[in-house]
Write a structure and sequence with these properties.
Elements: E1 5-10, H1 19-25, E2 31-36, E3 41-47, H2 50-58, H3 60-67, E4 76-80, E5 98-103, H4 107-206, H5 215-231, H6 263-276, H7 279-293, H8 295-301, H9 310-333
Helix pairs in contact: 5-7, 6-9, 7-9
Length: 334
């Protein structure tokens, strides 16, 4: 036996409704049969499933309006195992259908039921809207909380970054200080080593501290140091030291310091050279002293930059300036 088919019976079709119109309004797999009698036209629609039939019934007010059915007519839904069943009127359905027979109520009653259904759907929609609004408010609150947490995290991150920058600055400063200390130690070691070498050479070459220091020894040392100083290259590894300069004084260079480089000491030195040495030696020494102690010459050679101790550098510069001025005066007076 064939499975029951859902049959939708429309007892009255207006003249303007054709079969093609029904095919546009109903499911594509619906079997549509339109019957014509002298006084009316009616239609029977066989749908594949009950769900489709009930779906069309749920739209029956729309169907009634489209088909312009009278309100006293009824759209009937019944189930039959005979796919060829034809009912020409409601009275003929009783022996064609399998119970129960479901009949659609009149249009007015159906509209009330439909309105009730719409109210139900509206209530459901309102409830769903309320739930959605509540979820939305919860989501907004969560977003606000997350935004607040994010702001706090960003503030903490800025603090951490600030601390990191401060730490990097301190580390850089400490590294710079350590580098300065390292360079200062290297310079002091190099200066001490160079000064020791020069003093040992003074002892070896002129017998300083082993015999009495004389003015002639002072002049001989100055002449030797003038030639060496004019061609020497000074650097951080071979810095300028006190004993590397051709100081024009008669005192024992091993027992002298920068405070001994005075105008009177320079005058005494050049008076001794003028008396006890040849005039050519006096003139040549004066010119060489002017050249090698000139401040511009020192700046051009960058010799003071090799002295990392700022105080010693200033003292050497002041002593060199005094010697340069005293040499100029002594040479002008002669």
């Amino acid at each position: 036996m064939s499975p029951p088919r859902a049959v939708l019976y429309i007892p009255s079709l207006p003249p303007q409704v054709e079969e093609c119109d029904l095919r546009k309004w109903f499911h594509a797999h619906t079997t549509i049969k339109v019957y014509v009698q002298p006084n009316r036209r009616y239609a029977q629609l066989i749908l594949p499933t009950r769900a489709l039939a009930e779906k069309h019934l749920s739209l029956s007010p729309l169907c009634l309006r489209i088909l312009n059915s009278p309100t006293e007519e009824q759209i009937l839904l019944y189930f039959s195992t005979n796919p060829l069943c034809v009912a020409s009127s409601p009275s003929e359905i009783s022996y064609l259908c399998d119970p129960p027979l479901r009949m659609v109520p009149e249009h007015r009653e159906y509209l009330e039921a439909e309105n009730e259904h719409l109210r139900f759907l509206h209530a459901c929609a309102q409830e769903e809207y309320a739930e959605t609004s509540a979820r939305l408010e919860s989501s907004l609150a969560e977003i606000e909380r997350l935004s607040h947490d994010l702001a706090e995290s960003e503030e903490k991150l800025r603090g951490v970054e600030g601390e990191r920058d401060d730490a990097k600055t301190r580390l850089s400063s400490q590294s710079s200080e350590l580098e300065d200390l390292r360079n200062d130690k290297l310079w002091r070691d190099a200066a001490r080593r160079r000064e020791t070498e020069l003093r040992e050479r003074d002892v070896e070459k002129w017998g300083a501290r082993l015999s009495a220091w004389t003015s002639d020894i002072a002049v001989d040392r100055a002449l030797f140091m003038l030639e060496e100083f004019s061609t020497s290259t000074f650097s951080s590894s071979s810095p300028l030291t006190f004993s590397a300069l051709p100081w024009p004084i008669l005192g024992d260079i091993q027992r002298s310091d920068l405070s001994d480089m005075t105008w009177s000491a320079v005058d005494d030195f050049f008076r001794h050279v003028k008396v006890f040495r040849a005039a050519s030696v006096y003139k040549q020494m004066g010119e060489q002293m002017r050249k090698n102690f000139h401040p511009d010459r020192w700046r051009a050679r960058n010799i003071l930059r090799t002295v990392l101790d700022e105080e010693l550098r200033e003292q050497l510069e002041e002593a060199g300036n005094r010697v340069a001025q005293a040499v100029n005066r002594s040479m002008e007076e002669s």
